[in-house]
Amino acid sequence: MEKQEKPKVKKEHYVPQCYLNTFANKTGKEYKFFIFDKYKNEVRSGNVADYASEHFFYDVNFDKLFEMEKAENPDCEISMEQEQYANKVDEQYLEHFFSQYVEGVLFKAVSCIRTTFLLANPKTLYEIKAFSDEQMEQVAIYLMFQMLRTKEERKFFNNLEEKEAKVLTNFMGALQGIDNLADKVEAVWKSREHKRLLHFQMLMDKELQDAVFAAMMNMIWIVGVNQTDMPFYTSDTAAIRKGYEGVSGFACRGLEITFPITPKLVLILREPEYFHKDVHLHNRFFRLSQSHVEYINELQVTRSYRYTFCNEDNFSLAKNLIRKYPDLQNIDYDRVSTTG
What we know:
alpha+beta; five-stranded mixed β-sheet; globular
C-alpha cells in the first residue's frame, strides 16, 4: 500500500487558526489581532494566518532520515518493516491529522462552551453545567494535543534530548578519566529532521496520550468568566501548565492547566488533591477577580514561545512584565532546568 498523495501544506500552524480567530477581529475575509512580541518588546497588528506557524513544522521525511542514517553509519540496515512504515505514512501526516480530526471535529466541543455561556440566563449562569460529559472528553483530547503540539513543547523536548546527550558524553569521559568531556568537545546534536521525528513520535505515543487524557479527566474543570475591562490574552503556546508544587507533569500533585477560550472565558483544570476546596466548582462557570485575570494573562506572556495575542491593543501588563523580568526576552533559554 503506497502512501496517498495529498495537497502540500506549506505553512503549518501549531496553534490552529480556528482557535486564534476567536481572539481576533474579522476584516473582510481576514482575521486580524494585536501581537506582543516579547523578543523585540514591541506591539504590532497582524493576520492570524501569519502567526503560531512555521513552514513544514510537522513534516517528517523518512527517506531523508534513512539517507542520513546510512551516511553516518554505512553498515546500518533499514528493515523491511521500517521501509513499509515510511511508505505508508504521509510526510504531512500530522498536519492532515490535526486539520481534519482535531481542528475539524474536536474544536466544536470547545466552541460549545462559548455557546452555552452566550445562551445562558445571566441569573442562573453560575448554577448550570458548563458542558456535557461527551463534550468534556472531546475537549480533553483537543487540549491534550494542543499542549503537546507547539513549538515551545518541541523546544522543551529538544533541550531534554541535548541534556541527556551531554550527561552521557560526560559519563563516557569519566570512564576514561576525562572530566566534563562535553565541554571539551564540539557537541553535534541531532538534525532538524531528527527533532521533527522526536516530536512526531511523542505526539503519536498512544501510552502518553492515554496517560495525559486520564490525568485530565480526573481533574476539576472550571470555566472562568472574565467580567473585567482586561480581555484574556492567548499566545503561541495557549494551553499553559503550572505546577504549584514546583513540577508541571501531567500526573503531578498541584498541577493547574489554563486555556483561554475567548477574551471573556478561560478553561481551568486543577488537580483534585491539591485543589480539593474547588471540587464544588467542577463543570461550573465561575466569576474571576481582576487579579486572577491578570495572573492568567501573565502566564500567557511568560510561558509563550515568543508571541502573545489579543483582540485589543491592551498590552500594558505584558510590557510591565518585560520591564520587571527582562530575561523573558531570551526565547532560547534552557527549558529543562526551569520547568514548574
